[in-house]
Amino acid sequence: MRAFGFTAARTLPEALRLAGPGSAFLAGGTTLVDLMKLDVLTPGQVIDINRLPLHGISRDALRIGALERMSDVARHPRVYPVIAEALALSASPQLRNMASIGGNLLQRTRCGYFRDVHTACNRRQPGSGCAALTGDNRTHAILGTSDACVATHPSDLAVALVALDASVRLVSRAGERLVRLAAFYRPPGDTPQVENDLRPGELITEVVVPRLPWARHSTYVKVRDRSSYEFALASAAVALDVRGGVIREARVAAGGVGAVPWRLPAVEATLRGKPPTRASFEAAAAPAADGARPLPGNAFKVTLLKRTIVRALMSLEARS
Amino acid sequence: MTDRVDGRLKVTGAATYAADNRLDRLAYGYLVTSTVARGTIVSMDTAAASKAPGVLAVYTPFEPLKLYRYTKEQNDELTPPLQDANVRYFGQAIGLVVAETFEQARDAAALIQVRYDAKTPAASFRDGLPSAADPPSGSPVSEVLAPGVGSIDDALNASEVTISATYTASMQNHNAMEPHPTVAAWDGDHVTLYTATQGVILVVDRIAEALGIDKAKIHVRNPYVGGGFGNKWGIWAHTPLTAAAARALGRPVKTVLTREQAFTVVGHRPASQQTVSLGARKDGTLTAIKNDGVSSKSASNSFYEPVANLCLSLYASPNIHVSRKVVTLDVPVTTIMRAPQEANGSFALESAMDELAVKLGIDPLELRRKNDSPVVPSSGVPWSSKHLDECYRIGAERFGWSRRNPTPGAVTDGDWLVGLGMATATYGASRAQASVKVRLLANGTAVVSGTGADLGTGQSTVWAILAAESLGIPVARIRPDLGDSASPVAANAGGSGSTSTNGPAVQLATDAAKTAMIALAVQDERSPFHGMAAGDVRFEDGRLTAGNLSVPFGSLLTSLDVPGVEATATSPKNGDKTHGFRSFGAHFCEVRVNAWTGEPRVSRWLTVLDAGRIVNEKTAHNQIVGGVVMGIGHALLEETRLEPATGRISNADLASYLVPVNADVPPIDVRFLDYPDTLLSPLGARGIGEFGIVGAAGAVANAVHNATGKRIRDLPITLEKLLT
């Protein structure tokens, strides 16, 4: 960890004014402090935003303040089940009590090479190479990767929000904009260091979830080596609108497998108009890993992804 | 059922662990470690680090602290740190920065630029298997053959039924909750060390040697240890470096390994491969056991696991053959880890027994009962006290083993495939020499002291219970004083030998203290017992009694104005060569495997075992539960992942080196039979530290097979192995 300046902002304008080159906003700190200890992030100035009025969950739970803690959102009675479950299956209770919603969406990859400054990582140090390609890549992504980076996006919440087509409100001194989360995240391509559409000095102030009444029928399934306190090897956020024995509308997104939260429109399209049966689910999940670029350590994720989607859809239907 | 005597201190934070010693003018050390696995350090640019704020010193192979050569390996390494520029493994200590604060030392360490002349390391156990060599010590083969049998292969060929399979297990790291701290403080030519260790005497020996000083000038204190599992037996680089730096700087220094460093600066459990062949008659009677075991070994030391050895001790067979080979790798030091050789050895043997049971169509528990041996299978010497059949019987009844469906994959619960498995638990027992001192004090309490260590095992509570029992006073009036090198030399914590070795010494020392107390009572002119024959005075219920006269020992000492009476006694090592000493038991478990995504979860567990006399069921239960939890990790999660190309450990933190969390562990039912093993000692206690883990991974693997029909022969059993 390198020496840094520290300021606690009291208002949003003050926070935005303080932001500059080499500064970082501090909310729960569960990613930032961790990576600062590892010398992966070396901000010169840390701006504590915890006093900012970015709290609150609207009564319909469709607007969530960026500083809401994961545990509070997970407990909210109106939040869609897929969001609540994705949050409840994340991290540990201690982390969920600290980590903010905005910070969750901006958390950095768990790639061990990104986290070790003595190894090559294009995301951390552009042009240095990607040690994961020839190294230990069991937990890495199979979808949306490039020759420059195969890191997995770690957030569970982002997968649920992408499935629901949620947006983030971004505020900077230049103004405010609403960006669909699916467009916010950038696949690595040749510039893996650019992870998202966030501009310098910009802050996420809230998450906006579209009204989607049938998304009450939704779930999040997370597959991992141990039962708790671990990132996904594969996960699926699913929501189904089933009426008259037919799937009218479907939302499916996957985690643990993509360089970014991975929406699966082809799976959704195949589900539409079909009965909610195992055969329909298996047929729909079959192309889920099309275009995957598996590595020696993570080739199993091709099968695991499809099975995870089917399992999620089956468990959702078992509830109804 | 006695609570831990130090439980309250530990949960309230009042127990002083080694790193908690905040001495005046304390400086902080931080290790620099290598980022290549093999080669030579060409240069280390320390200019920026030396000038960084608060930095007191930067030590490197080019500006070293003098340490003498180690002459005796203690499950660690023979090369003292920083004495040459050779790099033998990734993460080796190559420098020490000392600064006014921990943060300053750490940040300065990051400024050091190291240039290497790097060479390609040997870092793949699998690639090394074809060229596995004889071990550096010990015989490469042990064999017992029935009269007239020419070879083990002849015995296998003559068997009615055989199975043969190869089992592998990855490297593991101990990951005790307390990392490795050393605090060193000098007073003239005398050094005091606070350092986490399984034996303060081991530290004295190593520091005397490395720093070239008289053992009498070294005092090591370590009353509380936050877990060891074998990893705090060896003395690692930071300990002599910290002691030497404190001497050079003339102020106390503390160095604590980071979690990442606690994967490389310290040792790990070797990787292993075992090829097991079993021959049997159709009724299940074993006729041949063969196990060719291979262990990885660090190029930096000689420790390896003779992983096939358990086959010599577990099941009856007229023909047994085990072999030992090693694959030497450019990796951190290989060392002892909970049940060395037997945790992995039992995984292979217990899996093979299950495979044989399937092939024979015999219940796997029945197969084990059929081959239960009243004698040591390899020598014919009788066991001192073996009640394994009772463990099998009680376990089967309690667990509902008879309801097990032998057809794999036949039982489901929703999306989960459910299977039952079992395995034999076992671990050897021993009694070494130990000395303990008991001091009776005028306030009516007693202090029991010896160099033993309580790693969180409950050892100090055992000492208190045994002393209280003998003195006839409450446990709360005994103060166990462990982990002080100034005390009489008791057993280090290792090899499940603490209670079996130290327990009898506590009993003897308490008896000696009572005798000394009576002697004082009859000799001191001011004593009401003065002039009586010692034989007429009894010490019971904490009182000295003769006829109608009865005085608590504390009151007597007070009235005589004597602060205390003490005695030291030595319990000898076990000299019995006519018996084998070993504990036996049985694990039963239920495992669920998700039918879609393959992840295995343990859902039920029972262990029934006989470890001789159980001194304190509460802490003993904890020990077995801990062993089983570690066994679940061994079976399903724990794996040190080594990059073959670089020799770097790719998961050197607790986020990616997985140990079980609470959600992975079902309630664990533990039953002790409690038959004192009076041939081992008058106390009759064997040991329980390693017992719980042995057989646990085999039981899980066997349950996975029963659930899925898939035989996974490579640990850990992760979901991708069950997806196909």
Automatic annotation (TrEMBL), chain A:
Residue stretches making up the FAD-binding PCMH-type domain: 1-214
UniProt key word Oxidoreductase: yes
Domain of life: Bacteria
Protein name, as recorded: Xanthine dehydrogenase family protein subunit M
Lineage summary: Bacteria, Bacillati, Actinomycetota, Actinomycetes, Streptosporangiales
PROSITE patterns: FAD_PCMH (PS51387)
UniProt keyword list: Oxidoreductase
InterPro entries documented for this protein: CO_DH_flav_C, CO_DH_flav_C_dom_sf, Diverse_Substr_Oxidored, FAD-bd_PCMH, FAD-bd_PCMH-like_sf, FAD-bd_PCMH_sub1, FAD-bd_PCMH_sub2, Mopterin_DH_FAD-bd
Gene3D superfamilies from the UniProt entry: 3.30.465.10, CO dehydrogenase flavoprotein, C-terminal domain (3.30.390.50), Uridine Diphospho-n-acetylenolpyruvylglucosamine Reductase, domain 2 (3.30.43.10)
Keyword Oxidoreductase recorded: yes
TrEMBL record, chain B:
Pfam families noted in UniProt: Ald_Xan_dh_C (PF01315), MoCoBD_1 (PF02738), MoCoBD_2 (PF20256)
Source species: Actinoallomurus vinaceus
Name listed for the protein in its UniProt record: Xanthine dehydrogenase family protein molybdopterin-binding subunit
Matching PANTHER family: ALDEHYDE OXIDASE 1-RELATED (PTHR11908:SF132), XANTHINE DEHYDROGENASE (PTHR11908)
Keyword Oxidoreductase: yes
Top-rank taxon, per record: Bacteria
UniProt key word Repeat: no
Aldehyde oxidase/xanthine dehydrogenase a/b hammerhead domain: residues covered: 12-120
